[in-house]
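Table 4 source record.
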Amino acid sequence: MIAKKDEILHLKSYGYSAIESAVSINTETLIPIASMTKIMTTIAILQLYEKGAFLLDDLIENYIPEFKKVKVLTRPDSSSSEALTIKPTIRDFLRHTSGIVYSDGESYTDKLYLKAGFTQWNKPLEDFISAITEIPLAFQPNKKWNYGYSHDVLGFLVEKVTGTPLNQYFKSTIFNPLNMKNTDFYVPKNKSNKLSNVYIYEKGKLIIEDHRDSSIYNTLPNAISGGVGWRSPYGGVVTSIDDFYILAKMLRNFGSYNNTVIFKLETIRLMIANQIGDLDAYGNKYGLGGWC
């Protein structure tokens, strides 16, 4: 799909949702969207910010006390750690300056994440928080930009502040108000035939990582993630192109869609403004939850 303003310029389906049985993709195909879940988590956080649940520059430890014990590496390649001189804020997690990375880098923190099993995580988000706060940050917050598990932490923050599971909060404040009928953390039985297989590319071949007939998305997973930093098919949102267009159009309309206001104009302006100053984000600038 290619759209400009309120006009869809191009909409066509290509390829297969199940290559082996030649099932063609169409506009109703349900696709796990992995890290695009991050934008939904960002919206949820900014909704709560608008309601006065917290300030963006509040320390994350005020709401998730486990972060009070977190230390930082003395050097990226060293196993030694020290106390933080700067404590991470909610804003740091939104803009990936929290000191949290992924499991595929060269720092000692990356290696500890890998050892902790974060790339194949299938336990509750609360357990993930307990595990990640035992591991030192890769760098002092607000001193560097690095893509990582920050939005998984923000997903837990939503649950802590609202007392509501992340999937239920998304549904009540984003999916239902926008009439995104095909979007959720799992696919109900009456729609399972619309789910796409998930493939990985190894040694010149496509290999099925998650088959729609036995998919984890057929049931609500234990590990519901707000950022989908976990590489296995756990915890991410599943949606269709039509539903995702609604979300994109709401953002393009500065927070509203069909007279439904998801969040305010000034908030989305904050979201799309440069939030990292002179820091580098893969050669670009980064706002709250996305590049700008």
